[in-house]
Amino acid sequence: MLDVVRKFPEQAREALEMDFEFDIDFSRIRRVMVAGMGGSAISADILSHFSKIPFHVVRDYAPPPFLDEKTLFIAVSYSGNTEETLSCFSLAKEKCPHVAITTGGKLGEMAENVIKIPSGFQPRAAIAYLLFPMAKLLSRASIIDVDLENAIYILESEREKMEETARMVANEMTGIPLIYGYGVMQSIARRWRQQFNENAKMHAFDFMLPECNHNELEAWEGSREKMTCIFLREREEGERIKTRFDFMREEYKKRAKVIEIYAAGKDSFSRAMYHMHVGDLASIYMAERRGVEAEPVNLIMKLKETLSQHSRSSS
Length: 315
Ligand code: PA5
Known about the structure:
By secondary structure, the chain is an alpha/beta fold. It is built from 13 helices and 9 strands. The protein folds into 2 domains: about 1-145, 3-Layer(aba) Sandwich (Rossmann fold); about 150-290, Rossmann fold (3-Layer(aba) Sandwich), CATH 3.40.50.10490. It has helices at about 1-5, 10-15, 40-50, 85-90, 105-110, 125-140, 150-155, 160-170, 185-200, 215-220, 240-250, 270-290, 300-315, and strands at about 30-35, 55-60, 70-75, 100, 115, 175-180, 205-210, 225-235, 255-260. It has a 5-stranded parallel sheet, sandwiched between helices. Helix 4 links the parallel strand 3 (about 70-75) and strand 4 (about 100). The chain starts with a helix and ends with a helix. The structure holds 5-phosphoarabinonic acid. 5-phosphoarabinonic acid binds near residues 38, 77, 123, 124 and 198.
């Protein structure tokens, strides 16, 4: 898993070179809706921060009712067999133009417009293939405006620094990680949490600034648990957010370990990719430190199997 995750910069470049053409009139699109779960949904969360039109991410069995012919519907499922995503897709496909991003599975069979991505990875380790083709599609449609080339350049040129930071995080962490982010880093904090959950098999929590300053902040008045706070920071975050983070650091460090990480990159998307990759690596180093295998997700697979047996026996 570590070898695969380390190849994220190369995979991103390969994914960006993937070509596709669909018979969709993008000039008519007024809204984007992406259906997906877990490792397949997070790419949409990240890209939603760069959208010029309303952008909804659906993690459920049904899309919201405002879906219409001006909605671009994107179903993302690495396996192509995730039941929530398939359910959304079957409810949406007759109503709006659609694209599926998948290795195949049932989704690959059902969809007319498919971006077929390489198989053989854990979904969360295939993030380059789940994210960059979607970003390319949305950029071409003028829905988002992100510098994908620059993001790859940052991933390539900052490799050592990201490795070093990830190792430092895994070595220094004690107790449960709480991850904090502002703007697009809210979604990156969520990705960190998911990666600690799935790879390191541990609990973790993510929080969004400024919202967490209106609730979670007060928990520190009573908190006695062992925790590590990870702040995903940007030098460009702005004065108000800087003041909030600085305040939080001074308060939180009275009760917990605080690790602040600043991303490299001249634009917000590049910095998001930087922070994401550090988190991905840190979760694998944490798995090593905890003596657990990062790759298998036995409980997730067991639940998926239980659900499929249940639908077989009730049909
Ligand atoms: O990372 C994982 O393994 C999970 O979070 C999966 O992505 C999630 O269960 C959805 O499966 P899929 O990506 O195949 O649709």
